[in-house]
């Protein structure tokens, strides 16, 4: 079929083909034009070499900027408090260890009878811890340092007293339970 279409196309175009020879000297004129235009046609691209050093300088500037911002960040709250008053960090370490030991002891004493009082104590300790953190921020922001330091120590003492009271109540609950169990016989 394609062969028929091609034959039909050539049959329709018969006599319309350009079969004339180009004028004399056509090839010479064409070659002269090409040779004459070679200087004009050849476009030399200017290399933009300025962007490479500029991009390197921008990268270095960004790295230096990030480095300064990282180094100029204030330390953690604990580090800032330690700079203001080194004694506070030592006292905090002592009290925090004491409180952690009492919390572990309290959790180990947990029973179904004491669960509610222990959970309530833990929520009170979280509130006191939040209060302590706000006191640290106040100390860093330049508040009255003697009053804030006193309040911070008072906060720790309140936590310790709370834990001691709850541990005593848990002991009393255990004793009452053991006492009741001893009076019942099967």
Give the helix/strand layout.
Layout: H1 2-12, H2 26-41, H3 51-71, H4 77-84, H5 86-108, H6 115-140, H7 145-183
Helix pairs in contact: 4-5, 4-6, 5-7, 6-7
Average pLDDT: 77
| Helical percentage | over 70%
- Helix/strand structural class: mainly alpha
Portion in beta strands: under 5%
Secondary structure: number of strands: 0
How far is the first residue's CA from the last residue's CA? 110 Å
Describe the structure.
With 186 residues, this protein is an all-alpha fold. Helix content is 77%, strand content 0%. The protein is built from seven helices and no strands. α4 packs across α5 (86-108), α5 (86-108) runs parallel beside α7 and α6 (115-140) packs antiparallel against α7. The longest helix is centred in the C-terminal third of the chain and has 39 residues, at 145-183. The radius of gyration is 46 Å and the shape is elongated. The model has no long low-confidence stretch (mean pLDDT 77).
Short note summarizing the structure:
By secondary structure, the chain is mostly helical.
Name a few traits of the molecule.
single chain; mainly alpha; elongated; 186 residues
